[in-house]
Design goal:
Its EC number is 2.4.2.60. Belongs to the THI4 family. It is built from 11 helices and 16 strands. The protein is of the alpha/beta class. α4 links the parallel β3 and β4. α4 runs parallel beside α6, α4 packs parallel to α11 and α9 runs parallel beside α11. The protein is globular, with a radius of gyration of 22 Å. The N terminus is likely disordered. It binds ligand AHZ. Ligand AHZ binds next to α4, β4 and β9.
Length: about 325
Amino acid sequence: SKTTTIPAAKMATMPHTTSIPVTAPTKPEVIEDMAGNWADFKFAPIRESQVSRAMTRRYFADLDKYAESDIVIIGAGSCGLSTAYTLAKARPDLKIAIIEAGVAPGGGAWLGGQLFSAMIMRKPADAFLRELGVPYEDDGVDANYVVVKHAALFTSTVLSKVLQFPNVKLFNATAVEDLITRKTEDGGIRIAGVVTNWTLVSMHHDDQSCMDPNTINAPLIVSTTGHDGPFGAFSVKRLVSMNAIPALGGMRGLDMNTAEDAIVKGTREITPGLIVGGMELSEVDGANRMGPTFGAMALSGVKAAEEALKVFEQ
Ligand code: AHZ
């Protein structure tokens, strides 16, 4: 494979755009063998059970391995993925499970806002884009923000990096439907894991007879389930219903300037064993929403990872 970079002339028209190496694929061996003769093309033979076993063997091995995890991240939106990237890179020795209710990980970060593709990140979150190698444009010398040409470029890049870490497993189409709790000596509670189920099962508890869930034990959970909605703000709502915190502040109206700082600064361990980041935190603290600007999600993820590392370094 050979490495190419964006040509200097093109770079000159894109001020402050980072140059990331693009790996040109080598011509696949099979195509050379066929030499254009597709009439004789044939896949290597297979028996259907081989496919089933190749998938299920690995999935059940992962369920077994991650039943005791070091960290569970709930929600694979922009904040959860940023948390996972930062943690997995810093601590390859930690077993990190990500539980995502949707089939498609990424949460709201496949589009910038409404149905528009560009993703805006306010400075200094551009540093996280450089860390990932996501190219961006700067809207001029005075601009306080940078623009990724498509939100899906950010999301697919961080996702592909997270999935390549050997110490991370993503369980998608899987919902966290409760938290595992332990009583502490002072009469409070500590979060000690998550209760999971297939999302399609979680959605049908009302019209099917009970189908019991599965569990993952972990000393630390990072919850990034987004603001309130059909699935959002899951962990913090559950903390209220189990009297671990008195009440939710409720997400306030949109104010980009106050919202982004508040989410990043406020990212913390809310209840022993449970760190909350991203827009889920706005429901606890009564913070404003920021709408379509994603720098706080990335940096809240970085802060959530730092808070988690402090716990592991104690
Ligand atoms: O599917 C959810 C989404 O992918 C997932 N999730 C929610 N509840 C879950 C549960 N079990 C497993 N019980 C669950 N997964 O969590 C993910 C949340 O992603 P998100 O993009 O909604 O949240 P975020 O905090 O990462 O990013 C918020 C982005 C927003 S919202 C907003 C505004 O409304 O003003 N502005 C920004 C930038």
